[in-house]
Write a structure and sequence with these properties.
The chain is of the alpha/beta class.
Length: 353
C-alpha cells in the first residue's frame, strides 16, 4: 500500500530499532530515501510494472516524511485516486497547514495553501479529485493532462459539471489559459492513456480521428467489434487504429481476444486496420505517419468498391508476354482469379494494373 516505504515511527512500532535499521541500510538490503523513511524492498520499483510502483512510492514518500499533518496534493493525490495517464516521473508533493514552517528536502515539494476538500486514504488525508486536478494539470505535459482528463471522464469519476468547475477554479492560476484549451480536447470515449497519446499525435498532425470506439457491423447489421479510433474513408470503409499497450493487452488471453476481434473486423470487408503498440507511440510521429499514409492510399470513392470488384480487369501487352500468351486476346489462365483473390484477402477490390 505504501510503496514498500515505512516511517521511523512505523518501524519502531513493529519492533525494528534504529540500530537495526541503520545496519540494514548499510548492507544495502534497505534504502533511506529521506530522513525518517526507509525503503524495505528497493528492487520492487525495477520490476516490469515498476512505473506504477514508483508513482505510488513518490506519493507516500512525502506523506511519511512530513508526518500525520501532511496531505497528498496535486499529482500525488491523483496517484492515490488511481488516475491513469500521469507522467512517468511524479514529484513527491504535500501540503501542510499554514503556520507550520518546514524546509523542502530531497526533491520533495511542500505547499502552504488554504484548506481544500479532503478525503481519507487509510490513515492519511489526500486532496479530493477536483482540487487535485486543479493543482496538477498546469504542471503536466499536454498529452498527460488530456490523458488524465480522459481517464477520469471515461470512468465517470468526474461529471461534465465538475469539469466545468475545474475551468472556473483555474481562473487566475498560472497556466490557466493553456489548461482550459487542453480540457476541450478531453473525450470520455478514450479507454486508455495510450489511445489518448496516439489521438493527440494525430490531432497535432492535422488528421484527428472522426470517431472513437467505432462500432463495426457486418452486412446484416450485426455488431462485430469496436475499434479504438476510426477515420471514415471516401469509399465508405473505415480506417481503424487499434492500440495495444502493455497495461491492457500483454496477457496471452487478452492478445488472443484482440486477434480474434481484429480478424472479425477485417472479415466484414469494411475495414482497413492499423495496429500500433506502446513502442510505436513512444516514437514521435510514427502513428500519424502510418495514418496519413493509409489515408493517402485509400480509394477516392469516385466509384463504389463493389463496382470496382466487378469491373473487367484490363490486361496489358507486357502482361501477356510475361504470361506466354502473345497474340491471344485473353489474359493468362488464372490471372484474373488471382487478382480477385488478392483483393478479397486484403479486404478491398483488386486495383487494375
Amino acid at each position: 500500500m505504501q510503496g514498500e516505504l515505512l516511517s521511523s515511527a512505523q518501524c519502531d512500532a513493529a519492533g525494528v530499532t534504529r540500530g537495526q535499521r541503520s545496519r540494514l541500510v548499510a548492507s544495502g538490503v534497505w534504502q533511506r530515501p529521506t530522513k525518517g523513511v526507509v525503503d524495505v524492498d528497493p528492487l520492487m520499483q525495477h520490476l516490469p510494472n515498476g512505473i506504477d510502483r514508483r508513482r505510488r512510492r513518490a506519493a507516500w514518500l512525502g506523506l511519511l516524511a512530513y508526518g500525520p499533518e501532511a496531505v497528498a496534493v496535486g499529482q500525488c493525490a491523483l496517484v492515490l485516486h488511481g488516475v491513469a495517464g500521469l507522467p512517468m516521473q511524479v514529484t513527491p508533493e504535500i501540503a501542510l497547514p499554514r503556520g507550520r514552517s518546514v524546509r523542502a528536502r530531497d526533491g520533495m515539494r511542500v505547499r502552504y495553501a488554504d484548506p481544500v476538500e479532503l478525503l481519507r486514504y487509510g490513515p492519511r488525508n489526500i486532496a479530493a479529485l477536483v482540487p487535485a486536478l486543479v493543482q496538477a494539470l498546469p504542471d503536466m505535459p499536454r498529452r498527460n493532462a488530456v490523458a488524465v482528463l480522459d481517464d477520469v471522464l471515461h470512468r465517470r469519476l468526474l461529471s461534465d459539471e465538475a469539469l466545468a468547475g475545474i475551468e472556473a477554479r483555474l481562473v487566475g492560476r498560472r497556466g490557466a489559459v493553456r489548461v482550459r484549451s487542453w480540457i476541450r480536447l478531453a473525450d470520455r470515449l478514450a479507454e486508455s492513456p495510450l489511445e489518448t497519446f496516439a489521438r493527440m499525435e494525430c490531432v497535432d498532425a492535422g488528421i484527428p480521428p472522426d470517431a472513437l470506439q467505432v462500432e463495426i457491423r457486418d452486412a446484416r447489421g450485426v455488431f462485430v467489434a469496436r475499434g479504438d479510433m476510426g477515420w471514415r474513408l471516401p469509399s465508405g470503409r473505415w480506417l481503424i487504429v487499434e492500440v495495444d499497450g502493455h497495461e491492457f493487452h500483454e496477457a496471452p488471453a487478452a492478445l488472443l481476444r484482440d486477434r480474434s476481434r481484429q480478424n472479425a473486423m477485417l472479415a466484414t470487408g469494411q475495414v482497413d486496420l492499423i495496429r500500433v503498440t506502446a513502442h510505436d507511440i513512444g516514437r514521435p510521429g510514427t502513428v500519424a505517419a502510418l495514418v496519413r499514409a493509409a489515408l493517402i492510399r485509400a480509394p477516392s470513392g469516385a466509384e463504389p468498391v463493389d463496382a470496382r470488384a466487378k469491373r473487367p480487369k484490363t490486361v496489358h501487352v507486357d502482361q501477356l508476354v510475361r504470361g506466354r500468351r502473345v497474340g491471344s486476346a485473353e489474359p493468362p489462365r488464372g490471372s484474373a482469379r488471382r487478382g480477385q483473390t488478392e483483393g478479397a484477402v486484403s479486404g478491398r477490390a483488386a486495383d487494375p494494373p
